[in-house]
Amino acid sequence: MCRNEEISPDNYTLAALSKVSSEIGDVRIGETVHCWIIKTGFVSDTVLMNSVMAMYLKCGSFRGLREVFDKMPQRNSASWNVLISGFSVFNSCMIYEDVWMLVKQMQKERVRLDAYTISTLLPMCDGKWNYGREIHCFIVKNESALDYLDVHVGSCLIDMYSKRKKVTLGRRVFDRMECRNIVAWTAIIMSYIQNGDCEEALALFQRMQFKVEPNRVSLISVLPACSSLNSLMGGKQIHGFAIRNEFNHQVSLNNALIDMYCKCGDLSYAKHVFDNDAYCKDEISWSSIIAGYGLHGKGNEAVSLFNGMLQMGIKPNNITLVGVISGCGRSGLVKEGLNIYNSAVTVYGISPTVEACACVVDMLGRAGQLDRALEFINSMPVKPSPSVWGALFGASVLHENLEMQEIACKFLIQLEPENSSNYISLSNVYASSGRWDVVAELRKRMKSRGLRKLPGCSWV
């Protein structure tokens, strides 16, 4: 064989090169491979062109992906699946009608939607409830061609119904699934937790253990249910299971355990998990333990942990800021709280959220510095929300300052004109100062808006 003879790569070689370029994320190499494919005449190889589309998808070039798709002489279901995946990845402000037109065009070309197509489309239906129901109907109608009880498709349906607060419909899908793996069990458990039925979530978790072995994700998913029900014993059992199965070196699970122990009132166990050297703590770990101490009014410990976090070179975020300032407010550490807030803004470049500002107002208000709290509200970098004015109102009630109560209530009524409690609070302020004419006017305004005072309920 002549040394100068040029050997052209075949389609298998080009497919391998396309996959390598997608793995390393180098679109320039991928474009070179694409040129070779055109030069060698393999553009009619559908499988090869699908790999090129997948390469453009992984390299972040939706334009390249779409150009390949539009010029393909023949397309199969995998080709359409890659294009639809591209829409889900690159179009955060996606036009749902465009995706739906793609699905209709796919069906016109007699390309069958498979389980991958369905599972890609379902997460896109968050903002379009009707589309999700249409897809479910399509699955049921085509049950003979498409496995309705497919685990992944079923899990996606459960997740879609959960986001629309249709837990009962999600449970129907779950109950009809003949094969339920850990993904399906976790999906239905999370569905109940996200919709406030934590007792049923824990009951399902107990049933799951007789069917499949829980993994790290399922443990993380069920821990918020223990927090909501204040089930410290249940949380400890999950913790014990994690230790026996050597999950205790997973940072995400330990973060969830810290949060659970803090919310269940056991700071000693939370600190025990935090001090475990078997995992590398991240900013969530520090924020969780700081927020836990702040929640229980241990401001000095929260500040100490915050300083330790800074010494470790970990940059704080707004969640950390809310946790430590909340602790300072409950402990009367106004100076320390303001120093932390100012350093977070000036030194670490944090743009404070409304929640962080509300914590500062609450901290100043608890200390009786109501004028200073009002000055802070007027100089806030974000627009005051009802939580901010609510914090000022609560502090004004605590310190019996009718003038501040009136100011806070007026702003609350502006922000929440349909909230009857704001009118009642302002009415009580005027009643305390004997201004019954204004009280009558407020009652009249409530009646004209159709607002009524919610009846009180006391449990003994």
Automatic annotation (TrEMBL):
| UniProt-listed GO biological process terms | RNA modification
Segments annotated as PPR repeats: 45-79, 181-211, 282-316, 419-453
One Pfam family this sequence matches: PPR_2
Q: Which domain of life is it from?
A: Eukaryota
Q: Could you list the residue ranges forming a coiled coil in this record?
A: none
Kindly state which keywords UniProt assigns to this record, in alphabetical order.
Answer: Repeat
Which InterPro entries does UniProt cross-reference here?
E_motif, PPR_At4g14850-like_plant, PPR_rpt, TPR-like_helical_dom_sf
The keyword Repeat belongs to this UniProt entry's keyword annotation? yes
* MF terms (GO), sorted A to Z: RNA binding
Q: What is the recorded name of this protein?
A: Pentatricopeptide repeat-containing protein
Organism of this sequence: Kingdonia uniflora
